[in-house]
């Protein structure tokens, strides 16, 4: 079987969900829908879900690559806004929403080439508008260091996704504390920027074994 995620995170999740035929995922920062995707495998397996990507150049690829997902061209933020400043790189990765008018966005290996203005929505708004099921299986977040804005617009106690995969390459104790406070257990991570958190502690050993096999 082919896996698509950056460090086979989808392989780890497949160990848990291999027998589930009707799961639901939410992919925030879905990129092209295939490249480094934590959720593409599960669409191929027949799951449904929501893919969100604000980048004007990537969104058409996402729509083409993920025909069985609800694809949304919005930025996920802590508020619902008509538009937000989205500093885009030509290839998509490292693009970022940046509202601070007094300071420039973080420097990247290559410069931003475009300032786009997508609509912004809270994750709660998106989930409500599209009737996402309570306790859905996978929430994947890859938003280039704006994770807190996503989480601040998300009622984790209401939706309680079974698995949360979130990208942050540096050690961020406050995020670990946030998930502990909401009774999520972290899977010991491999050499990956992605961290996996489990709602149900019984899932931790299954995912850990799947990730190391």
From TrEMBL:
Keywords: Methyltransferase, Transferase. InterPro entries: EGF_Rcpt_Signaling_Reg, FkbM_mtfrase, SAM-dependent_MTases_sf. GO terms for biological process: endoplasmic reticulum to Golgi vesicle-mediated transport; endosomal transport; methylation. Residues 27-173 form the Methyltransferase FkbM domain. The keyword Cell inner membrane does not apply. One of its GO terms (cellular component) is plasma membrane. GO terms for molecular function: methyltransferase activity. PANTHER family: PROTEIN STAR (PTHR34009). This is Putative methyltransferase.
